[in-house]
Design goal:
The protein has 551 residues and is an alpha/beta fold. It has 21 helices and 20 strands.
Length: 551
């Protein structure tokens, strides 16, 4: 037992949890932690220009490394600023640990109007975190940090909120440090595995629907082995992209829309094996299909499909046992779907009903320019939407989007965090001009810390999707245009490199050159408005003028 300040106890606990980097701001209430970080050479402290970037960077780091990302912010407005990144992490089940300050201990909850005061600030994050705690004494820090990391990584992973007041960071008392707890991987009862196996074996046309929970469980190899062994085709959600190479003979592709060849395939399947998915956008199984639903979160079982058999357990720990149970039940006698998969892929490559122009040309140019092992972070831009079904993802944890949170502006800071966690891999951010401007000041962060990613900015001078929708359905666009900076000059002003592409088809030529520069590079790509994708023909009723009320 040693006498430590709360800040020292926290930082030493982070070291024991394997933390190598903290993304944060050194605000006035955080000095005790900042001082402790200064004395700990094994942890890098990356200071952002706004709290907004801290949680986005932590999320990008977590999703691409498989390790928790840590963010640190001041209380009150700092937490509000960090909310967007927490929302995205929550939607993608990403283990982000938020370390937040508080106002002085004696004034918490008193409404005295202290600096950064927000009454019960844990309630701010409650909707987008799994767990929250407030620590008031230094000796309480290790056990609560220990629990924060356990909560962030166990069950369905997700963001957590840990806070402490400034005096706790500097006060010293006897503190006992703890070793990190091993994360338990739960497995369903064997009787349920046997039942699931019997139903899968009796199926005439089973299909796997793979979600992001596979990546969170680091179970990509188990999924591939399962699909190969039992010869079952795999469809993926957007979050599940990369859990199996989309060039694999069992891979049909990902991110199903409301219609099309992939939707037809899954609706023609009598047994859908949902693995690590919440079916967050829609229920993909046909109404009369049986859903064998493997997920770590019991609340998801039967959530969207009533005819479900729930297997509550960790994907990595469970898939092998389910595979063994299928073998024990006699295996399946269905034909290999490889030929059908190849036929569907060939049709998808040329089908006018599935492809959209000029989006297809744009994405193919991007594909030609980006290495196959590059980590791609797609923003909420037209090309980002289109990438969900059309970006061919070959490697695990290399396709990053904002999930159902849908945050405009998330892509650039998230890509920075991904590059910090993967310094030796190419990282490419794909953003629109509107989204990029949300966090453009983080160019400074990229330059300061040598975070050498490539950012592709598709620049149409508008919130393009919104402008098109308003023009199409509401009689004209309204206040959707921008006054943008010259992005090349903006990058150069910060000490980065700016390049202006000739157009969206020039991206294939510019990206390889940008990657060789080993600097933060920003590519300004002039584009015009693109038409609505065919897949969006079925639209939400509130996106068009209506007579009467909408049920």
């Amino acid at each position: 037992m040693a006498k430590l300040s709360g800040g020292e106890a926290l930082v030493k606990s982070l070291v024991r949890e394997g933390v190598e980097v903290v993304f944060g701001l050194p605000g006035v209430q955080m000095y005790g932690i900042v001082d402790a970080l200064r004395q700990e050479p094994s942890i890098s402290f990356i200071v952002t220009r706004n709290e907004t970037a801290t949680t986005y960077m932590a999320d990008g780091y977590a999703r691409t490394t498989g390790r928790p990302g840590v963010a640190m912010v001041v209380p009150g407005p700092g937490i509000y600023n960090a909310g967007g990144g927490l929302s995205t992490a929550f939607s993608r089940s990403s283990p982000v640990v938020l370390i937040a300050g508080q106002i002085p201990r004696a004034t918490i909850g008193k409404n005295f109007g202290g600096l950064h005061e927000v009454n019960d600030q844990k309630e701010i994050t409650n909707p987008v975190t799994k767990w929250q705690t407030q620590v008031l004494r230094p000796h309480e820090v290790p056990s609560n940090i220990h629990e924060a990391f356990r909560q962030a990584q166990s069950g369905r992973p997700g963001p957590v909120h840990f806070e402490l007041p400034p005096e706790t960071m500097v006060e010293r008392e006897e503190v006992v440090l703890l070793e990190p707890a091993a994360i338990e991987r739960t497995v369903p009862d064997y009787s349920l595995l046997q039942q699931a196996a019997r139903e899968i074996v009796s199926a005439s046309k089973p299909v796997i629907y793979a979600g992001g929970g596979i990546a969170r469980s680091d179970a990509e190899s188990e999924l591939v082995e399962f699909a190969e062994k039992h010869q079952i085709a795999v469809l993926t959600s957007a979050g599940g992209k990369g859990t199996i190479s989309e060039k694999h003979p069992m891979a049909l592709g990902g991110s199903l829309g409301p219609a099309g060849l992939l939707k037809d395939y899954i609706e023609d399947s009598d047994v859908v094996i949902g693995i690590g998915t919440r079916f967050s956008m829609r229920n993909q199984a046909a109404e009369n299909a049986r859903l064998i639903h493997l997920d770590v979160d019991p609340e998801m079982i039967g959530h969207v499909h009533k005819n479900s058999l729930g297997l509550i357990g960790d994907v990595k720990a469970t898939l092998t046992k389910l595979s063994d149970a299928i073998d024990a039940a006699g295996g399946g006698n269905w034909d290999s779907p490889a030929n059908v998969v190849a036929e569907i892929q060939a049709r998808l490559a040329v089908s006018e009903d599935e492809l959209n122009q000029p989006q297809e040309e744009y994405i193919q140019s991007l594909r030609e320019g980006a290495p196959s092992d590059a980590i791609m972070v797609f923003g909420m831009t037209q090309l980002g939407y289109y990438s969900r079904p059309r970006w061919v993802t070959e490697n695990p944890k290399t396709y990053i989007d904002s999930g159902y949170s849908g945050n405009l502006g998330f892509a650039f800071p998230t890509a920075l965090g991904a590059k910090v966690g993967n310094p030796n891999r190419p990282v490419i951010c794909v953003s629109g001009d509107g989204g990029f401007m949300y966090n453009s000041s983080e160019i400074s962060t990229a330059v300061k810390y040598g975070i050498n990613l490539v950012t592709v900015i598709y620049n149409d001078g508008h919130y393009g999707n919104v402008a098109r929708d308003l023009d199409d359905d509401f009689g004209g666009a309204y206040e959707t245009d921008f006054v943008n900076p010259d992005f090349v000059k903006l990058a150069e002003a910060y000490g980065a490199i700016g390049i202006r592409a000739k157009g969206p088809l020039d991206v294939k030529n510019v990206i390889p050159k940008a990657l060789k520069l080993n600097k933060p590079v920003f590519i300004d790509v002039p584009v015009k408005r693109v038409p609505r994708p065919k897949q969006w023909a079925a639209r939400a009723p509130w996106t068009k003028p209506q007579d009467g009320l909408i049920d």
